[in-house]
Amino acid sequence: MIKPSCIILAAGYSSRMGVLKPFLKFSDEFNFLENIISGYRLAGVKNLIIVVNQPFIDEDKHLKNSRLKDCTLILNKHPEYGRIFSIKLGLKKLNDDPFVFIQNVDNPFVNPEVLNSLMNGILNADVAIPTFQGRNGHPVLLNKTVINAIIRNSNLDIQFRELINSFSHIQIEVNDPGILVNINTPEDYSKYFPKYQSGIPD
After folding, report:
1. CA angle centred on 102, ends 175 and 75, rounded to 5°
2. Do 126 and 146 touch, CB atoms closer than 8 A?
3. Model confidence over 19-77: pLDDT tens digits?
4. d(CA 141, CA 23)
């Protein structure tokens, strides 16, 4: 079994949500970010890099959170540059790690079984992508070839999916519709987390 790292992308403005998505409640025990970290830990992923924005740093919640103590926080001073810029910031902290998951904080349904399936499949391609009923989802797992190409890429306008589509990839069918979910608005949050929807501003 390979030993990949993970980059968690949490530097967005959360403008449609109205509150920082990393701190949204996932359960009585975890917020979104904590649940993501827990899922990767259960899958044996040790090196977690979290790309965050200044409002995240300004919140003192992360300073008191023991679940973040073994994670690397990277401040993205330019969230306006887009997702690929955050990914590049994270990848530059990998050193010589040969594989990395790219995980969005707005997709908090991390399933260790899905992660293990991707880890088993990545040796046959440059990119491993989970699918549910034929639809591609999250997260994706990249090898060193793709990591190096993204770091070298200077086009911040390119879409991440467009970039990785130029490499060999394997689609791995999984029995988990959670890979397709993105929580971007209060309506999305209310749909999947009705118990906690009162914490979201109108």
Report:
1. 145
2. yes
3. 889 999 999 999 999 999 999 999 999 999 999 999 888 876 665 677 788 899 999 99
4. 25
Lowest mean pLDDT among 9-23, 123-137, 138-152, 162-176: 9-23
Which of 90, 41, 44 has the alpha carbon at shortest distance from 66?
41
The whole-angstrom distance between residue 137's C-alpha and the CA centroid of its chain comes to 12
Nearest to 18 by CA among 55, 46, 44, 48: 55
The CA distances from residue 69 to 36, 47, 62, 63, in Å, are 14, 12, 9, 9
Domain 5-199 coded CATH 3.90.550.10? yes
Contact 25, 48 (CB under 8 A): no
Cis amide bond preceding 98, omega within 30:
no
How many other C-beta atoms are found inside a 10 Å radius of the C-beta of residue 24? 22
